[in-house]
Amino acid sequence: IPADTKDVTVNLMNPEGNPCYFTFTLVLKDTDETIYQSKMVEPGKAITDVTLSRALEKGEYPAVIKITTTSLTDGSAMNGADVETVLIAQ
Questions:
Q1: Which of 38, 49, 68, 77 sits at 20 to 30 Å (Cα–Cα) from 20?
Q2: Torsion-angle region of 48 (φ positive above 0: left; ψ -120 to 50: alpha; else: beta)
Q3: What is the pLDDT of residues 41-62, one digit of tens each?
């Protein structure tokens, strides 16, 4: 991602055919700081342009993309996932 800017391009996708909405939360591992949280994303849709809560200086940032799922039919919580990643700001 570009360093020193809050507006970045990503690809956070909820695959077609899923029985649930996805909510994505981006958390920096070293500080447990949430730098982005999405609204619910319907199946077959993606988020590509996001605004982080703050700009990241040049460097590498271990992070977790937390995916929370919500049923399309009754709004109940379903299983979720944590995806380990490294954000590279340059």
A1: 49
A2: alpha
A3: 999 999 999 999 999 999 999 9
